[in-house]
Amino acid sequence: MPDPVHFYFDFSSPYSYFAAQKIDWTVKGCGRECVWKPFLLGALFKITGSQPLSTIPMKGEYCIHDWQRMAKMMDVPWTLPDPFPIPTQAAARAFYWISDDDPALAKKFALAAFGAYFGEGRDITAPETVAELAAPLGIDENALLAAVADDAIKQRLKDETAAAIDAGVFGAPFFIVDGEAFWGNDRLWMIKRWIKGQAA
Amino acid sequence: MPDPVHFYFDFSSPYSYFAAQKIDWTVKGCGRECVWKPFLLGALFKITGSQPLSTIPMKGEYCIHDWQRMAKMMDVPWTLPDPFPIPTQAAARAFYWISDDDPALAKKFALAAFGAYFGEGRDITAPETVAELAAPLGIDENALLAAVADDAIKQRLKDETAAAIDAGVFGAPFFIVDGEAFWGNDRLWMIKRWIKGQAA
Protein backbone atom coordinates (compact mmCIF):
# COMPACT_ATOMS: atom_id res chain seq x y z
CA MET A 1 0.00 0.00 0.00
CA PRO A 2 1.52 3.37 -1.01
CA ASP A 3 1.82 6.14 1.59
CA PRO A 4 -1.28 8.25 2.21
CA VAL A 5 -1.68 11.83 1.04
CA HIS A 6 -1.34 14.34 3.90
CA PHE A 7 -3.96 17.09 3.88
CA TYR A 8 -2.98 20.10 6.03
CA PHE A 9 -5.71 22.58 6.85
CA ASP A 10 -7.06 25.11 9.31
CA PHE A 11 -10.74 25.13 10.26
CA SER A 12 -10.82 28.87 9.55
CA SER A 13 -9.50 28.58 5.96
CA PRO A 14 -12.21 28.87 3.27
CA TYR A 15 -10.18 27.15 0.56
CA SER A 16 -9.53 24.31 3.05
CA TYR A 17 -13.30 24.00 3.50
CA PHE A 18 -13.67 23.56 -0.26
CA ALA A 19 -10.77 21.09 -0.48
CA ALA A 20 -12.17 19.04 2.41
CA GLN A 21 -15.31 18.30 0.35
CA LYS A 22 -13.30 16.55 -2.38
CA ILE A 23 -9.85 15.46 -1.27
CA ASP A 24 -10.68 11.92 -0.05
CA TRP A 25 -12.69 11.18 -3.16
CA THR A 26 -9.95 12.69 -5.36
CA VAL A 27 -7.09 10.61 -4.00
CA LYS A 28 -9.14 7.42 -3.55
CA GLY A 29 -9.65 7.47 -7.31
CA CYS A 30 -5.86 7.12 -7.58
CA GLY A 31 -5.59 4.32 -5.03
CA ARG A 32 -4.46 6.47 -2.10
CA GLU A 33 -5.79 7.10 1.36
CA CYS A 34 -5.75 10.58 2.88
CA VAL A 35 -4.65 11.58 6.39
CA TRP A 36 -6.14 14.88 7.59
CA LYS A 37 -3.88 17.19 9.57
CA PRO A 38 -5.47 20.31 11.04
CA PHE A 39 -2.94 22.88 12.22
CA LEU A 40 -2.89 26.51 13.34
CA LEU A 41 -2.46 28.81 10.37
CA GLY A 42 -2.04 31.75 12.77
CA ALA A 43 1.08 30.16 14.28
CA LEU A 44 2.48 29.66 10.77
CA PHE A 45 1.65 33.26 9.73
CA LYS A 46 3.58 34.52 12.78
CA ILE A 47 6.68 32.83 11.36
CA THR A 48 6.20 33.70 7.67
CA GLY A 49 4.81 37.19 8.27
CA SER A 50 1.79 36.38 6.09
CA GLN A 51 -1.60 38.00 6.63
CA PRO A 52 -5.05 36.42 6.38
CA LEU A 53 -6.21 36.75 2.75
CA SER A 54 -9.31 38.74 3.59
CA THR A 55 -7.26 41.54 5.18
CA ILE A 56 -5.04 42.17 2.13
CA PRO A 57 -6.14 45.20 0.01
CA MET A 58 -7.78 44.26 -3.34
CA LYS A 59 -6.90 40.56 -2.89
CA GLY A 60 -9.13 40.40 0.20
CA GLU A 61 -12.20 41.75 -1.58
CA TYR A 62 -11.51 39.49 -4.54
CA CYS A 63 -11.26 36.41 -2.32
CA ILE A 64 -14.50 37.16 -0.51
CA HIS A 65 -16.21 37.15 -3.90
CA ASP A 66 -14.24 34.12 -5.10
CA TRP A 67 -15.33 32.02 -2.10
CA GLN A 68 -18.98 32.74 -2.84
CA ARG A 69 -18.50 31.93 -6.52
CA MET A 70 -16.54 28.76 -5.72
CA ALA A 71 -19.26 27.54 -3.34
CA LYS A 72 -21.90 28.11 -6.02
CA MET A 73 -19.87 26.25 -8.66
CA MET A 74 -19.09 23.39 -6.26
CA ASP A 75 -22.69 23.38 -5.03
CA VAL A 76 -21.75 23.55 -1.34
CA PRO A 77 -23.37 25.84 1.25
CA TRP A 78 -21.59 29.15 1.87
CA THR A 79 -21.84 31.94 4.41
CA LEU A 80 -19.02 34.41 5.03
CA PRO A 81 -18.78 33.97 8.80
CA ASP A 82 -18.54 36.82 11.27
CA PRO A 83 -16.17 36.73 13.15
CA PHE A 84 -13.67 35.61 10.52
CA PRO A 85 -11.00 34.34 10.84
CA ILE A 86 -11.29 32.70 14.28
CA PRO A 87 -9.00 30.75 16.62
CA THR A 88 -9.48 27.05 15.81
CA GLN A 89 -7.69 25.41 18.73
CA ALA A 90 -10.85 23.73 20.09
CA ALA A 91 -11.88 22.19 16.76
CA ALA A 92 -8.34 21.07 15.90
CA ARG A 93 -7.72 19.54 19.34
CA ALA A 94 -11.07 17.76 19.18
CA PHE A 95 -10.13 16.44 15.77
CA TYR A 96 -6.91 14.79 17.01
CA TRP A 97 -8.63 13.42 20.10
CA ILE A 98 -11.33 11.77 17.97
CA SER A 99 -8.87 10.73 15.27
CA ASP A 100 -6.66 8.74 17.63
CA ASP A 101 -9.57 6.36 18.15
CA ASP A 102 -11.34 6.64 14.80
CA PRO A 103 -9.83 8.64 11.88
CA ALA A 104 -12.96 8.23 9.74
CA LEU A 105 -15.14 9.65 12.51
CA ALA A 106 -12.72 12.56 12.91
CA LYS A 107 -13.19 13.43 9.23
CA LYS A 108 -16.98 13.39 9.72
CA PHE A 109 -16.50 15.71 12.69
CA ALA A 110 -14.23 17.98 10.61
CA LEU A 111 -16.82 18.24 7.84
CA ALA A 112 -19.49 19.04 10.46
CA ALA A 113 -17.31 21.78 11.98
CA PHE A 114 -16.44 23.21 8.54
CA GLY A 115 -20.11 23.05 7.55
CA ALA A 116 -21.22 24.88 10.70
CA TYR A 117 -18.64 27.62 10.24
CA PHE A 118 -18.62 28.22 6.48
CA GLY A 119 -21.98 26.67 5.58
CA GLU A 120 -24.05 28.28 8.33
CA GLY A 121 -21.73 31.04 9.54
CA ARG A 122 -21.81 29.68 13.09
CA ASP A 123 -18.85 30.69 15.28
CA ILE A 124 -17.02 27.45 16.20
CA THR A 125 -14.40 29.05 18.46
CA ALA A 126 -15.88 27.84 21.78
CA PRO A 127 -15.21 24.27 22.96
CA GLU A 128 -18.91 24.03 23.90
CA THR A 129 -19.93 24.65 20.27
CA VAL A 130 -17.40 22.11 19.04
CA ALA A 131 -18.81 19.56 21.52
CA GLU A 132 -22.36 20.26 20.34
CA LEU A 133 -21.32 19.66 16.73
CA ALA A 134 -19.68 16.34 17.70
CA ALA A 135 -22.64 15.06 19.72
CA PRO A 136 -24.82 13.98 16.73
CA LEU A 137 -21.89 11.78 15.63
CA GLY A 138 -22.18 9.83 18.90
CA ILE A 139 -19.28 11.62 20.57
CA ASP A 140 -19.73 12.30 24.29
CA GLU A 141 -19.82 16.08 24.85
CA ASN A 142 -18.34 16.03 28.34
CA ALA A 143 -15.54 13.69 27.33
CA LEU A 144 -14.71 15.99 24.41
CA LEU A 145 -14.74 19.09 26.63
CA ALA A 146 -12.39 17.40 29.09
CA ALA A 147 -10.13 16.22 26.26
CA VAL A 148 -9.67 19.61 24.57
CA ALA A 149 -8.75 21.19 27.91
CA ASP A 150 -6.09 18.54 28.55
CA ASP A 151 -2.42 19.54 28.39
CA ALA A 152 -1.49 16.48 26.36
CA ILE A 153 -3.87 17.37 23.50
CA LYS A 154 -2.81 21.03 23.65
CA GLN A 155 0.79 19.91 23.20
CA ARG A 156 -0.29 17.52 20.45
CA LEU A 157 -1.73 20.37 18.37
CA LYS A 158 1.43 22.44 18.93
CA ASP A 159 3.52 19.47 17.81
CA GLU A 160 1.35 18.87 14.74
CA THR A 161 1.61 22.56 13.80
CA ALA A 162 5.40 22.48 14.23
CA ALA A 163 5.59 19.25 12.20
CA ALA A 164 3.55 20.83 9.39
CA ILE A 165 5.91 23.83 9.28
CA ASP A 166 8.94 21.50 9.35
CA ALA A 167 7.43 19.58 6.43
CA GLY A 168 7.36 22.82 4.40
CA VAL A 169 3.71 23.76 4.77
CA PHE A 170 3.32 27.55 4.24
CA GLY A 171 -0.41 27.94 3.67
CA ALA A 172 -3.72 26.09 3.71
CA PRO A 173 -4.93 23.87 2.23
CA PHE A 174 -1.63 22.12 1.65
CA PHE A 175 -1.01 18.58 0.48
CA ILE A 176 2.08 16.37 0.62
CA VAL A 177 2.27 13.14 -1.38
CA ASP A 178 5.48 11.08 -1.10
CA GLY A 179 7.34 14.29 -0.25
CA GLU A 180 5.80 16.22 -3.18
CA ALA A 181 4.12 19.45 -2.05
CA PHE A 182 0.94 21.00 -3.47
CA TRP A 183 -0.53 24.27 -2.25
CA GLY A 184 -4.13 25.27 -2.64
CA ASN A 185 -7.55 23.95 -3.48
CA ASP A 186 -6.67 24.61 -7.13
CA ARG A 187 -4.10 21.81 -7.12
CA LEU A 188 -6.46 18.82 -6.76
CA TRP A 189 -6.28 18.01 -10.48
CA MET A 190 -2.49 18.15 -10.31
CA ILE A 191 -2.30 15.85 -7.29
CA LYS A 192 -4.36 13.34 -9.24
CA ARG A 193 -2.13 13.58 -12.30
CA TRP A 194 1.02 13.43 -10.20
CA ILE A 195 -0.08 10.24 -8.39
CA LYS A 196 -1.14 8.62 -11.66
CA GLY A 197 2.22 9.55 -13.18
CA GLN A 198 4.05 7.88 -10.30
CA ALA A 199 1.94 4.75 -10.67
CA ALA A 200 2.52 4.54 -14.43
CA MET B 1 -21.31 39.69 -30.14
CA PRO B 2 -20.62 39.67 -26.37
CA ASP B 3 -17.69 41.64 -24.95
CA PRO B 4 -14.26 40.04 -25.14
CA VAL B 5 -12.40 38.61 -22.17
CA HIS B 6 -9.53 40.85 -21.03
CA PHE B 7 -6.32 38.98 -20.28
CA TYR B 8 -3.85 41.03 -18.18
CA PHE B 9 -0.30 39.76 -17.97
CA ASP B 10 3.35 40.64 -17.56
CA PHE B 11 5.98 39.06 -19.83
CA SER B 12 8.00 38.17 -16.72
CA SER B 13 5.17 36.24 -14.99
CA PRO B 14 5.49 32.43 -15.25
CA TYR B 15 1.82 31.74 -14.58
CA SER B 16 0.98 34.28 -17.30
CA TYR B 17 3.20 32.29 -19.70
CA PHE B 18 1.15 29.19 -18.91
CA ALA B 19 -2.18 31.01 -19.22
CA ALA B 20 -1.13 32.53 -22.57
CA GLN B 21 -0.89 29.04 -24.08
CA LYS B 22 -4.56 28.32 -23.41
CA ILE B 23 -6.64 31.42 -22.83
CA ASP B 24 -7.73 32.11 -26.44
CA TRP B 25 -8.67 28.50 -26.97
CA THR B 26 -10.46 28.38 -23.60
CA VAL B 27 -12.69 31.38 -24.19
CA LYS B 28 -13.26 30.69 -27.89
CA GLY B 29 -14.92 27.45 -26.80
CA CYS B 30 -17.47 29.64 -25.00
CA GLY B 31 -18.04 32.00 -27.92
CA ARG B 32 -15.81 34.82 -26.69
CA GLU B 33 -12.83 36.64 -28.11
CA CYS B 34 -9.87 37.58 -25.92
CA VAL B 35 -8.03 40.90 -25.78
CA TRP B 36 -4.48 40.65 -24.44
CA LYS B 37 -3.29 43.45 -22.14
CA PRO B 38 0.36 43.36 -21.07
CA PHE B 39 1.12 45.65 -18.14
CA LEU B 40 3.96 46.26 -15.69
CA LEU B 41 3.59 44.05 -12.64
CA GLY B 42 6.44 45.93 -10.96
CA ALA B 43 4.45 49.19 -11.10
CA LEU B 44 1.49 47.37 -9.53
CA PHE B 45 3.66 45.79 -6.81
CA LYS B 46 4.95 49.25 -5.86
CA ILE B 47 1.35 50.22 -5.06
CA THR B 48 0.24 47.00 -3.36
CA GLY B 49 3.53 46.33 -1.57
CA SER B 50 3.62 42.80 -3.03
CA GLN B 51 6.88 40.98 -3.76
CA PRO B 52 7.73 38.74 -6.71
CA LEU B 53 6.70 35.17 -5.79
CA SER B 54 10.17 33.73 -6.19
CA THR B 55 11.60 36.03 -3.49
CA ILE B 56 9.11 35.00 -0.76
CA PRO B 57 10.52 32.46 1.74
CA MET B 58 9.13 28.90 1.32
CA LYS B 59 6.54 30.08 -1.24
CA GLY B 60 9.34 31.08 -3.61
CA GLU B 61 11.02 27.67 -3.57
CA TYR B 62 7.65 26.00 -3.93
CA CYS B 63 6.73 28.10 -6.96
CA ILE B 64 10.02 27.42 -8.72
CA HIS B 65 9.22 23.72 -8.43
CA ASP B 66 5.56 24.26 -9.32
CA TRP B 67 6.45 26.06 -12.58
CA GLN B 68 8.61 23.16 -13.69
CA ARG B 69 5.90 20.66 -12.76
CA MET B 70 3.21 22.75 -14.48
CA ALA B 71 5.26 22.99 -17.69
CA LYS B 72 5.72 19.22 -17.71
CA MET B 73 2.00 18.58 -17.15
CA MET B 74 1.02 21.15 -19.79
CA ASP B 75 3.72 19.85 -22.12
CA VAL B 76 5.22 23.28 -22.80
CA PRO B 77 8.96 24.11 -22.76
CA TRP B 78 10.33 25.45 -19.50
CA THR B 79 13.56 27.06 -18.33
CA LEU B 80 13.81 29.11 -15.14
CA PRO B 81 15.38 32.22 -16.68
CA ASP B 82 18.32 34.07 -15.20
CA PRO B 83 17.90 37.01 -14.68
CA PHE B 84 14.37 36.64 -13.30
CA PRO B 85 12.21 38.64 -13.00
CA ILE B 86 13.17 41.24 -15.62
CA PRO B 87 11.85 44.66 -16.75
CA THR B 88 9.40 44.01 -19.57
CA GLN B 89 8.87 47.52 -20.93
CA ALA B 90 10.36 46.72 -24.36
CA ALA B 91 8.23 43.62 -24.94
CA ALA B 92 5.04 45.26 -23.65
CA ARG B 93 5.54 48.45 -25.72
CA ALA B 94 6.27 46.35 -28.81
CA PHE B 95 3.08 44.39 -28.15
CA TYR B 96 0.86 47.49 -28.17
CA TRP B 97 2.61 48.93 -31.22
CA ILE B 98 2.03 45.71 -33.16
CA SER B 99 -1.46 45.23 -31.74
CA ASP B 100 -2.73 48.60 -32.95
CA ASP B 101 -2.27 47.35 -36.51
CA ASP B 102 -2.85 43.65 -36.05
CA PRO B 103 -4.01 42.17 -32.70
CA ALA B 104 -3.59 38.58 -33.92
CA LEU B 105 0.02 39.25 -34.92
CA ALA B 106 0.65 40.85 -31.53
CA LYS B 107 -0.47 37.64 -29.83
CA LYS B 108 1.95 35.65 -32.01
CA PHE B 109 4.68 38.07 -30.98
CA ALA B 110 3.71 37.70 -27.31
CA LEU B 111 3.90 33.92 -27.51
CA ALA B 112 7.31 34.21 -29.21
CA ALA B 113 8.57 36.55 -26.46
CA PHE B 114 7.14 34.32 -23.71
CA GLY B 115 8.65 31.26 -25.42
CA ALA B 116 12.09 32.86 -25.68
CA TYR B 117 12.07 33.91 -22.04
CA PHE B 118 10.46 30.95 -20.26
CA GLY B 119 10.95 28.27 -22.90
CA GLU B 120 14.61 28.98 -23.70
CA GLY B 121 15.63 31.17 -20.75
CA ARG B 122 16.69 33.98 -23.10
CA ASP B 123 16.78 37.45 -21.51
CA ILE B 124 14.19 39.56 -23.37
CA THR B 125 14.87 42.83 -21.55
CA ALA B 126 16.71 44.57 -24.41
CA PRO B 127 14.71 46.19 -27.23
CA GLU B 128 17.19 44.62 -29.70
CA THR B 129 16.25 41.11 -28.48
CA VAL B 130 12.55 41.95 -28.71
CA ALA B 131 13.07 43.18 -32.28
CA GLU B 132 14.94 39.98 -33.20
CA LEU B 133 12.05 37.89 -31.87
CA ALA B 134 9.55 39.93 -33.90
CA ALA B 135 11.51 39.73 -37.15
CA PRO B 136 10.53 36.14 -38.10
CA LEU B 137 6.88 37.29 -37.89
CA GLY B 138 7.54 39.80 -40.68
CA ILE B 139 7.87 42.78 -38.35
CA ASP B 140 10.53 45.32 -39.34
CA GLU B 141 13.24 45.40 -36.68
CA ASN B 142 14.19 49.04 -37.15
CA ALA B 143 10.60 50.19 -37.14
CA LEU B 144 10.01 48.27 -33.91
CA LEU B 145 13.14 49.73 -32.30
CA ALA B 146 12.03 53.24 -33.21
CA ALA B 147 8.50 52.56 -31.96
CA VAL B 148 9.46 51.26 -28.49
CA ALA B 149 11.69 54.32 -27.93
CA ASP B 150 8.85 56.68 -28.82
CA ASP B 151 7.27 58.78 -26.06
CA ALA B 152 3.75 58.01 -27.25
CA ILE B 153 4.18 54.25 -26.81
CA LYS B 154 5.92 54.73 -23.46
CA GLN B 155 2.91 56.71 -22.30
CA ARG B 156 0.59 54.10 -23.77
CA LEU B 157 2.10 51.36 -21.59
CA LYS B 158 1.88 53.61 -18.52
CA ASP B 159 -1.77 54.28 -19.34
CA GLU B 160 -2.52 50.58 -19.88
CA THR B 161 -0.86 49.73 -16.55
CA ALA B 162 -2.86 52.46 -14.76
CA ALA B 163 -6.06 51.24 -16.46
CA ALA B 164 -5.38 47.66 -15.33
CA ILE B 165 -4.91 48.81 -11.73
CA ASP B 166 -8.08 50.93 -11.98
CA ALA B 167 -9.95 47.88 -13.24
CA GLY B 168 -8.97 46.03 -10.04
CA VAL B 169 -6.07 43.95 -11.37
CA PHE B 170 -3.77 43.01 -8.44
CA GLY B 171 -1.67 40.21 -9.92
CA ALA B 172 -0.92 38.30 -13.10
CA PRO B 173 -2.37 36.57 -14.94
CA PHE B 174 -5.67 38.32 -14.36
CA PHE B 175 -8.86 38.07 -16.37
CA ILE B 176 -11.95 40.26 -16.52
CA VAL B 177 -15.14 39.09 -18.23
CA ASP B 178 -18.12 41.45 -18.23
CA GLY B 179 -16.71 43.05 -15.06
CA GLU B 180 -16.19 39.67 -13.35
CA ALA B 181 -12.59 39.26 -12.12
CA PHE B 182 -10.55 36.06 -12.11
CA TRP B 183 -7.02 35.83 -10.76
CA GLY B 184 -4.53 33.17 -11.74
CA ASN B 185 -3.83 30.49 -14.27
CA ASP B 186 -5.84 28.15 -12.00
CA ARG B 187 -9.05 29.97 -12.84
CA LEU B 188 -9.38 29.03 -16.53
CA TRP B 189 -11.93 26.29 -15.76
CA MET B 190 -13.94 28.79 -13.72
CA ILE B 191 -13.91 31.43 -16.47
CA LYS B 192 -15.31 28.81 -18.83
CA ARG B 193 -18.06 27.82 -16.40
CA TRP B 194 -18.85 31.43 -15.61
CA ILE B 195 -19.27 32.38 -19.29
CA LYS B 196 -21.38 29.30 -19.96
CA GLY B 197 -23.54 30.15 -16.93
CA GLN B 198 -24.11 33.69 -18.28
CA ALA B 199 -25.05 32.31 -21.69
CA ALA B 200 -27.50 29.75 -20.23
Radius of gyration of chain A: 16 Å
Q: What is the helix tally of chain A?
A: 9
- Assign a percent range to the helix content of chain A: 55-70%
Give the strand order of the largest sheet of chain A, numbering strands 1, 2, ... along the chain: 2-1-3-4
Give the strand content of chain A: 5-15%
Structural class designation of chain A: alpha+beta
Tell me the series of helices and strands of chain A, N- to C-terminal: EHEHHHHHHHEEH
Tell me the number of strands of chain A: 4
Give a short account of the largest sheet of chain A: 4 strands, mixed
Question: Overall 3D geometry of chain A?
Answer: globular
- Assembly status: homodimer
If interface size is counted as residues with C-beta under 8 Å from the partner's C-beta, which chains form the largest one? Answer: A-B, 21 and 21 residues
Topology:
The structure is a homodimer of 200-residue chains.
Chain A: E1 5-9, H1 14-28, E2 34-38, H2 41-48, H3 59-74, H4 89-101, H5 103-119, H6 127-134, H7 141-148, H8 151-166, E3 174-177, E4 180-183, H9 188-199
Parallel strand pairs in A: 1-2
Antiparallel strand pairs in A: 1-3, 3-4
Helix pairs in contact in A: 1-5, 1-9, 4-5, 4-7, 4-8, 6-7
Please characterize this protein's 3D structure.
2 copies of one chain form a homodimer. Chain A is 56% helix and 9% strand. Chain A has a 4-stranded mixed beta sheet with strand order 2-1-3-4, with helices on both faces. The longest helix of chain A is centred in the middle third of the chain and has 17 residues, at 103-119. Chain A is an alpha+beta fold and 200 residues long. Chain A contains 9 helices and 4 strands, in the order E-H-E-H-H-H-H-H-H-H-E-E-H.
